[in-house]
Design goal:
Two copies of one chain form a homodimer.
Chain A: H1 3-45, H2 66-73, H3 92-95, H4 98-102, H5 121-127, H6 154-162, H7 164-168, H8 175-178, H9 187-190, H10 203-211, H11 221-230, E1 237-241, E2 246-251, H12 260-268, E3 284-285, E4 292-293, H13 300-305, H14 308-311, H15 316-320, E5 323-326, E6 329-332, H16 355-392, H17 397-419, H18 423-426, H19 428-455, H20 469-484, H21 487-512
């Protein structure tokens, strides 16, 4: 061969080897995809048990879906809490005693802690002071059965068995049902038990869509990965309306939209509340200021849709249930928790920054809004206390009208921003805007109050600084005790309830076969 | 050949052809890169004129850098203004008359319009009421020559010729220099005229870095693509300090950091102001409330660093001077304007959303903060007016201390957020936080005022709603006229100045050869 021919031959072989290597790599990749698909098919082909529609026993799903089940049981651990919020579950009222003042006249002033995982849902609503002590002499039974709605896959079953309106109209902790709602939030809440398709198991979300002229069945899979969460992580209220034959009927106030102003407008224009004829809707009359207060629940879905991740179509599951690869299987992590617990599988799927940078970016957003929140809480607490002083000194309803209107607006904005978990990350600027609006109204209330107080000869109202929950609760006790007794009495009753009544519920549930899985405290 | 051998041969040829195609493609790509480099090299090899260091005539650069020069001349057009802000330059005081109240006692209350492109810099400072009417009988000369610093590449030349301290200590509009500062912001402000490397031509930025222990010469090219802008688009003040022999010495208040609180702390602890011994720094004493006010300039650099684009290392030039490809040449667009004017060349380089979505995302951020801003302006204006009423009714300095302290804090936050162009996009949540803080302080001022006013027998102060700039200026005129005359007198003098004095400056500049380019109004 000439030198040129040698070179040409050498080049041809080199090219050939390169091409072979590339094709081999593609083959490996294709094989891994096929393996994954085969595994998915095999999961469905190798179902070990047949599962009934709406199955409420979570443990029944273990045999067929061991990975999802195992990660779901991990919600039993408190799970990741950010350094920013502390590493343990927090007694929020003790950390922020002004919140006791803001909720004076409502059960949240008795007891409010940071949330725990889905596995604890039934236990946590049972142990909370807020649900009182049914079955105990002198124990309160302050909540309707509607409070159970989001806590258990037993609820859709009950709704079907007894009728929806009848279910809502019952009382929380009534002995006939207490042994029926025993399995915590689990498989059937979000899945069709036979196909494992995502499903809407709670009527309120479906009904809210219908009132807006939308059919939730048209939602895409990606939308459903958010909407199954939106069954519960939303703002709602208990609708009482005689004309509609509704008692404590769980309703989402979305008819005008889901912004803080749209929902406020909805409540302000809703006057048909049974027994509260002619007044705009309120959740409670404040024990100190007499303000008709709107209590925000947890508008997590609403606020998440107002931020950039929601706007770009990122679903709740994308970050809160990241995929895990195990061998050829890719499955969703059912240990639902903060995405900061798994930055490598959550944020870093899209964002190339270091874990430290991404975590700090989140904390930075939380810190900025926390600053406004803390100021707003202080101003609202002061407004409630000053308003009480104004009433005590002879202020008239006419004089107080503007004051109460401003407090109502301010506290609604505060609660909407604060009650929604993760909102300062989900929609940082929108939450800052809402908190700033709240602060504005709280100040306007105090400015109006200053004039009323002067008129009645009060120059200064001493605003206490509370060292913790107990001090704040002691402060409001004279204003609430006539209606509900003291916090001390409630705690004693609750203790009896937990020792005497609850074990009976568990026993009955086990006897009837409704509860087959242990360890749910 | 056997069938197998035929197939093998066919396969080998196919592979060979595929590889050839790939290699040919790579060759094309490499050629395009080489062509581009060659063009860049040719730009430097084919320089048509030699340019002196610090050359202030922008037109001299045209021959060597025609593309950059042409796009720079496009700054003569008002350029893109968002639908959100209106399509034309706006008289801000007329659109927001409360700003007249906020600036009562400072030249900004006389005249403040939205900014125009770099080409207009010298004309716009000359025509503004704020610079008065030097050379006209009875005309004010309210500004130091420091005000020229950022308007022209003639300034670094002047600084070198006469000494830095001497330059700063002069008067704006003094006839000896007025015909020297004639070329608007251009090439030498950011470029070394011989190498075209980016350069820091203004001492204040270099000095601020030094005081922080940093050497600006260590900045990377990407950092320089921001820092050349940070020479001017920053918060600054005129330092008067006898011990340092400084008169109106342009200084950046960054020694404690660049946040709104860090800069406030800097000013609050700076007490060595000449003629204001023992007091913290202030820019002016408010004509109505007597508050020692901090006037924020345009902290665009500071606020841009607090948002996600700055935090991720995006430079000013990346979005405000996007690249243009023309044939083989890629160059920076020197028509510096809103990135929304060229979404395809700015946002969409990184973000895959539609132009409409991206534009709406920006407007959304602006709208949210504008809502807080508007409320804050109203509260601050009311506080100033109520404070005047308190003084008029005999309030003492002791009684007013808290009031003035809160107004100062509130207005500093308002101005910092508002004076910085684009801040609601650059750092949406940080600006919301700052505005919320401002609103908090403004309200605290009014709450304290309510008590002072009551003490002096005033129950209500009527806060006017101003229909436009003129109404608001008429309102403050009695409080400022003794010092500076009426706005009407100023306007008459300015008109004489523009007709009689300015033409002489231009004539002299042309005669001396300092001004060789027309059309700069």
């Amino acid at each position: 061969m000439t030198e040129n021919k040698k070179i040409a031959t050498w080049k041809a072989w080199t090219l050939f080897v390169v091409v072979l290597a590339v094709v081999f790599g593609l083959g490996l990749f294709a094989a891994s995809m096929l393996e994954r698909r085969a595994e998915v098919v095999s999961v469905f082909n190798n179902k070990k048990v047949d599962i009934a529609p709406g199955e409420a026993h979570n443990d029944v799903f273990e045999a067929n879906y061991p990975r999802e089940f195992k990660t779901w049981t991990e919600t039993a651990e408190t799970g990741f809490r950010s350094e920013y919020n502390g590493s343990e579950a927090v007694d929020v009222l003790d950390a922020r005693p002004n919140m006791v003042i803001l909720w004076a006249g409502y059960a949240f002033a008795w007891d409010y802690t940071t949330p725990r995982g889905h596995m604890h849902a039934v236990y946590d609503i049972t142990r909370s002071l807020r649900t009182g002590s049914p079955g105990v002499e002198g124990g309160l039974t302050p909540q309707p059965s509607t409070c159970w709605t989001c806590k258990s896959p037993d609820v859709p079953r009950l709704m079907q068995e007894m009728g929806l309106k009848e279910y809502y109209a019952g009382q929380w902790g009534n002995p006939a049902w207490a042994a029926e709602v025993v399995n915590p939030i689990g498989c059937s809440d979000c899945h069709d038990a036979q196909t494992m398709d995502l499903r809407i198991s709670r009527p309120a979300l479906r009904e809210a869509f219908e009132r807006q002229g939308k059919n939730i069945e048209d939602a895409s899979l990606q939308e459903m990965r958010t909407l199954v969460c939106a069954q519960c992580h939303v703002e709602y209220y208990f609708r009482n309306n005689e004309a509609e034959d509704k008692i404590n009927y769980l309703t989402f106030p979305w008819d005008n939209g889901i912004t803080v102003e749209a929902i406020e407008e909805y409540y302000d224009s809703y006057t048909a509340e049974t027994g509260k004829e002619g007044k705009p809707y309120y959740d409670y009359i404040h024990a100190l200021s007499k303000t008709p207060i709107l209590k925000a629940q947890h508008p997590g879905y609403e606020t998440s849709q107002m931020g950039i991740h929601g706007q770009r179509g990122v679903s709740c599951a994308d970050c809160h249930m990241p995929y895990i690869s195990e061998g050829g299987v890719k499955y969703s992590d059912h240990h639902i928790q903060s995405p900061l617990a798994n930055i490598d599988r959550t944020c870093q799927v899209c964002h190339r920054e270091s874990e430290e940078t991404l975590r700090e970016n989140v904390y930075d957003r939380q810190r900025k809004n926390d600053e406004i929140r803390t100021r707003l809480e202080a101003e609202l607490a002061a407004a409630h206390i000053e308003a009480k002083t104004a009433w005590d000194n002879g202020a008239t309803e006419g004089e107080m009208k503007e004051v109460l209107s401003e407090i109502r607006k301010g506290q609604w904005r505060w609660d909407f921003a604060v009650a929604s978990h993760g909102a300062s990350f989900h929609a940082p600027q929108e939450i800052a805007r809402i908190l700033a609006g709240g602060l504005d109204h709280a100040h306007l209330a105090r400015l109006a109050l200053a004039k009323v107080l002067f008129k009645h000869g009060v120059e200064n109202v001493k605003i206490p600084v509370f060292g913790g929950k107990e001090e704040a609760q002691k402060f409001i006790e004279p204003s609430i005790a006539a209606k509900v007794g003291t916090i001390g009495q409630m705690e004693k009753n609750k203790s009896r309830f937990m020792n005497e009544v609850r074990p009976e519920w568990i026993k009955a549930a086990k006897a009837s076969g409704k509860l087959t899985m242990e360890g749910l405290e």
